[in-house]
Design goal:
With about 55 residues, the protein is of the alpha+beta class. GO terms for molecular function: kinase activity.
């Protein structure tokens, strides 16, 4: 399904990636993950760092 909200889409993709990493044994549930993202695509636009819990 198409997600209208850009940040919600980013969060959904992040959650999927973390779920896959947990399933492959690369990440454990409860571990911290540092996420770097930008306000738009392309080089030089990364302006946000978050720490999320898997």
């Amino acid at each position: 399904p198409k997600v209208a909200d850009w940040q919600e889409d980013v969060d959904n993709r992040l959650r999927w990636g973390m779920d896959q990493a947990i399933a492959e044994g690369l990440l454990q549930s409860g571990q911290s993950v540092i996420v770097i993202q930008g306000f738009r695509s392309g080089h030089g636009n990364s302006n946000t760092m978050r720490i999320v819990v898997a």
